[in-house]
Amino acid sequence: MARRYVPVAEVARPHGVHGELRLKVYNQDSDLLLRRPRVKLLFERGEERDATIDEAREVNKAILVKLTGVEDRDAADVLRGAQVAVARDEFPPLGEGEFYACDIEGARALLPSGEEVGRVAGLSSYPTCDVLVIDRNAPTMGRLEVPLVEAYVASIDVGRGVVELVTIDGLE
Questions:
Q1: Backbone phi, psi, residue 26, to 5°
Q2: What radius of gyration do the chain's Cα atoms show?
Q3: Pair (151, 76) in one structural domain
Q4: pLDDT in tens, 54-70
């Protein structure tokens, strides 16, 4: 079975003249890239490239990395905009009741009646709370943002790919 790779950062720009890269990390609280896992670089054109992180350090809400074979600023600049993906099985284990956003993308969002509202497209973070972004089943209905709080979300079952909602009243 092929390993599943999940984008965790993007190459923002070269840093210095020795091939270092400044990464914009999607989850500021994660130290996953500091552990120097093997990564895949995903390019907008659909190309992929395996890469090895030789060095990694944290700086001002970003991470600087040095990849094997990227020796100068020109080589680093070619990688600008590429996503940095890590194998999902490299992620740290979770505690009880925790989940990774990538694990619920595509999950069915169900009301207590069993009616499917749509599918989870992702997770967005706001200063007051995180919300599940749900693509509605009817294309004309667009997306729905459901606060990730007990008043709206009853349970999340990653294994079954189901998010059970309490209600969507007041969100439409």
A1: -70, -35
A2: 19
A3: no
A4: 999 999 888 999 999 99
Residues 110, 158, single domain; the answer is: yes
- Same-domain pairing of 109 and 46: no
The per-residue pLDDT for range 21-79, each reduced to its tens digit, is 999 998 888 899 999 999 999 999 999 999 999 999 999 888 999 999 999 999 999 99
Asked if residue 108 and residue 79 are part of one domain, the reply reads no
8 Å CB contact between 165 and 146: yes
Does 172 map to a domain?
A: no
Alpha-carbon separation of residue 24 from 6, 50, 70, 77, 111 (angstroms): 15, 19, 18, 15, 36
Rounded to 5 degrees, φ, ψ at 170 are: 85, -5
What is the residue whose two structure tokens read 């210095």?
16
